[in-house]
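Standup notes
- DV: blocked on the single-chain target, sequence here:
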Amino acid sequence: MSFIIKIALIFTVLILTLQAELPPDVYENYQKNAPEALTISVEKVKTSLISFSERSVTVTAKVIRVKRSENKVKRGDTITIVYNRTFWRPGGWVGPSSLPILKEKQTVSAFLRKGKNNNNYYPDARGKSFK
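- DV (later): unblocked, structure below
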């Protein structure tokens, strides 16, 4: 096998192995440490295109269960969750999974943090902030 073919083969194998997800225990730790652990019912979802590979997502949701809340969120409260959803990544990208775009009437557990200068909430467990 020629030297160039060997290098190309090694490069290809390296690129394929770099496409990795974070280990499950990393996400579990993020979820465990999120300031807000809620069960929500999604009422409204608004998305807008930021770029060819990313969307802005705004979710209005009703809190149906509170596991913990540093911001004193109560059952029945309506909250706004804001995040970006990346739907395309280049080959060889390494890192956390993308957040899903939630759907109206969907009920999910949400691991969130409140914004410092606004009343919005933001995903706090990366790609596993909703389950």
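- Follow-up: Strands lie at 36-51, 54-69, 78-86, 107-114, 121-123.
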